[in-house]
Specification:
- 2 copies of one chain form a homodimer.
- By secondary structure, chain A is α/β, with parallel strands linked by helices.
- Chain A folds into 2 domains: 275 residues, Spore Coat Polysaccharide Biosynthesis Protein SpsA, Chain A, CATH 3.90.550.10; 84 residues, no CATH class.
- The first copy, chain A, contains 11 helices and 17 strands.
- In chain A, the strands form 4 sheets. In chain A, strands 6-9-7-8-10 form a 5-stranded mixed β-barrel, surrounded by 4 helices. In chain A, strands 12-14-16-17 form a 4-stranded mixed sheet, with helices on one face. In chain A, strands 5-11 form a two-stranded antiparallel sheet.
- The longest helix of chain A is centred in the first third of the chain and has 16 residues.
- The mean pLDDT of chain A is 94.
- At the A-B interface, strand 13, strand 15, strand 16, strand 17 and helix 11 of A face strand 13, strand 15, strand 16, strand 17 and helix 11 of B.
Chain lengths: 367, 367
């Protein structure tokens, strides 16, 4: 076997609409296809570039919905078409990651995969690379390794990872005792004060075979279906098998199907990520990210002509209109050609219920 | 001479962009061409209909800018084209009203004119008619008569009229001692408490000849120029005279050129207007008008699809977009195809300085 990092293959599951980012993020144009950081690149492009420091271009796989094929291939010029896995319909994270694992294990037995969401933001790339490299080394010893983020506040928006003992021979890795769901604020404070908990950022590094083995134990039917699809993937029967099987695939998050049972079995390790990470879950998070600690400013994403007077918050513009804002604090304005959202940072989470209301009132064309 | 009301002719000066109503109100589409009340008609159409209770359709004259000819003729089907006076360029209220007076006096010596802005809102039409009829009777005795609005609050947004003694034989009219400029809040409170002051709503009823006579005394050059234009108006030399003279017409408000000097000469009377009147000067005023005392609601002008959650204020929509508003109090959102304004009722007056900023930054195409 070659050294662990040479067996490493990056996987980018690019799914999730990001309802809290409506009307910017739509079913046809989800979060990962937008520049939410003002970097001049989309989150997907940023993710690709970040992973290129770990994997050559021919060792990065993207798993996404059929409808995003064109957009993804346009954005990622160096993506090898054979490493683009298109899903017939969304089936949650287990199907996406396990299918990638199964296809790659078949192509290259012994592969170690790392799964990194297409729509997260990481600020310090070098630190990220160091952490993933350590995770790959630990994974090679027969572990499913997650990267936990050192909490900067007692957030109730993330799940947490409870760490156990240091892993012998690893610089920073520890065993994982368990994963815990998003806590209430009191629990979150206790977690952060204890120093034993990290944010679960949903990054997993593991030998593909080990990940599939765990899935076989917890979800044998799903495992069998995924293997059947993977078996046919690189041959003439791919579409026929997908037509037959895809619709019945069980939707389940990989946290439940693999991470939690594996942790209970003592098979999960964790490398603490000492880098800045954001899941940019709502417009308040984007405003936060843009302001970088400077308050009282208006951040602008997009090419809007803007006149702002005594206004702070964020303007996201995808229209070509002049936007004039007067006397608004912590405002969120999202201006797209067919829909306009105005709210405040405080109410950013309520955008999701608005999207639900749109569904209920027959405005699915705007979702 | 026939009875005063039979000599009456209504004049509608339709000018003024309404900068505080940008981006709804534009140079090409000023305030009076918009429905700001939700009546289903524009302010100009509402004004016309209101005056039809006093004047037959052939006794209403409109004075407006050249560029609005098509819009005005489309909106006012019954306007006789010979009663449409088009201004080559804006020259303030004296030129507009005096030209109407001079044209009408030439056509019909002894005419009594009443001038009513095209962009004000009056709620109780019958009361308005009673008040104007009294004003016409008083005007026929050789007075310039203004209609003052009984103040409902110590507004600092209007000029005031100081009343003197009742006029003998008139039901409610009083002499006018003087006109005073927009006061500060302390003065405004004193004015309102005294009971001797009315808001100056800029409505004037007077024999055309008397109005012109006053103008001759205060602004002899302007008077002479207006008479020269009026003399040529209904003949073949109209355009030639306009070309020669119009550019040099002095810009002056009729309050300064006629009303104040005439008041000093004891020639002005006032009929108190006991009807609800609004000059709808900014979006806060429109919101106020829409809410009719009900607070906590979102008023909507236009055909927008709206989703509002815990939001109050006003949305004016001239675009076809969905507008979603969450958690905003006393908000003002004005959504037009090429410009978006978001502000609050508190800051509604600042829209004017924003328009000034647009001028300064070379965005005149949006004004």
């Amino acid at each position: 076997m070659t050294s662990p990092i040479n067996r490493f293959f990056s996987v980018i599951p690019a799914g999730g609409i990001g309802s809290r980012l409506w009307p910017l993020s739509r079913a046809s144009q989800p979060k990962f296809l937008h520049d939410l950081t003002g970097s001049g690149q989309t989150l997907l492009e940023d993710t690709w570039d970040r992973l290129r420091g770990l994997s050559s271009a021919d060792r990065i796989m993207v798993v996404t919905g059929n409808v995003h094929e064109t957009a993804v291939m346009q954005q990622l010029e160096d993506l090898d078409p054979k490493n683009l896995v298109l899903e017939k319909s969304p089936k949650d994270s287990t199907a996406a990651i396990a299918l990638a694992a199964a296809i790659l294990e078949k192509r290259e037995p012994g592969v170690i995969i790392g799964s990194f969401a297409a729509d997260h933001v990481i600020v310090e790339t070098a630190a990220f690379h160091r952490v993933v490299r350590e995770a790959v080394e630990v994974a090679a010893t027969g572990k499913i390794v997650t990267i936990g983020i050192e909490p900067t506040e007692p957030s109730v928006g993330f799940g947490y990872i409870k760490m156990g003992e240091p892993i012998e021979g690893a610089p920073t890795a520890k065993s994982v005792l368990k994963f815990v769901e998003k806590p209430n604020i009191e629990k979150a404070k206790r977690y952060v004060e204890s120093g034993n908990y990290l944010w679960n950022a949903g990054m997993f590094i593991a030998p593909a075979a080990l990940l599939l083995e765990q899935l076989a134990k917890s979800e044998p039917e799903l495992h069998a279906a995924i293997l059947e699809i993977a078996e046919a993937w690189d041959g003439p029967q791919r579409n026929a098998v997908i037509e037959k099987i895809w619709g019945n695939l069980k939707k389940v998050a990989i946290d439940y199907s693999v991470a939690e049972p594996a942790a209970a079995a003592g098979l999960v390790a964790c490398v603490p990520g000492n880098f800045t990470w954001h899941d940019v879950g709502d417009f308040a998070a984007i405003a936060e990210l843009q302001s970088q600690g400077r308050s009282g400013n208006l951040a602008v994403l997009g090419d809007a002509k803007v006149l702002a007077d005594h206004t702070s918050g964020i303007l996201v513009s995808e229209s070509n209109r002049l936007v004039a804002l007067i006397g608004l604090q912590d405002i969120i304005v999202v201006d797209t050609p067919d829909a306009l959202l105005v709210t405040t940072k405080e109410h950013a989470q309520r955008v999701k219920s608005l999207v639900d209301a749109l569904k209920a009132t027959g405005h699915s064309d705007l979702l």
